[in-house]
Amino acid sequence: MISPTARVPDDLVQPFRIDPFALRGRLVRLGPALDHILSQHAYPAPVAAMLGEAITLAVVLAGALKYDGIFTLQTKGDGPIRLMVADVSTDGAVRGYAQYDQKKLDMVMRTAGDAGVELSVPGLLGGGYIAFTVDQGEDTDRYQGIVELAGATLADCAQHYFRQSEQIQAGIKLAIGRTGSGGAWRAGGLMLQRVPPEGGYGVIADDVEDGWRRAMVLMSSATADELIDPGLSPHRLLFRLFHEEGVRVYNTHPLEARCRCSRERIETILRAFPADELDDMQKERVTTVTCEFCSRRYTFDADEISRLVPV
Prior knowledge:
2 domains, six-stranded antiparallel beta sheet, CBS domain Like, 11 helices, Hsp33 domain, alpha+beta, six-stranded mixed beta sheet, 34% helix, globular
């Protein structure tokens, strides 16, 4: 029995498998890390919630890939939220940001009201696309998949991508919310993926198909409250959902909110600016660059800018 005062693991990816039907899954829990990312910006609640869903989806999808680098999820649309970027590194560093139009957001909220609009892709993102990118460094080719924003939620869009582009059967469920009245942000995600059995399991095709359908029904039964409940451990939730199917858990992967910006990276970006623009910056005496992900500010005086101008 778990003690009611015991610390429940948080900010992690919990891989699992359902045998004998060759179903691979991941349970994602985000607590303090997500709240830290969203609290770095004064986002309106619907924007913060949608970005939180994007970050959770990025972590869920990254866990399905074998790579060493950065997995990035990006949306671009003509709705109130123009752009969202969320990325996760193989060592578990997570970050994200959003760009939005306040006037468009106010119009949507007045027209639709609060009910049903907070996580509506058509209402908040409009028409556009969602892109998934894997970047493993300078000496490797980048992989990118793009699909239109089709569905009510980002989970719907991702499943549409799998159906259209990868021919992979996968189910995704996401939840995000705040603990208490206006409290800290939390999110949870589940993904089930059907994979070819390794060496065969001796299970007939009809049984495998039935097992997949049953697992999807069980996953859909998970409530939003269960997915984000800080008192419900990942093991207990997975046992609650899939114990009759033979669920097996593996080692968890930790996650943390960590931006990759640095003064050196900003200097590299500034060096790429045309010389005339750098000259204009010198006239301003002090140039301030703000990281869109973490809101950290970097200042450069005229002498520092002059040293960046190509000779």
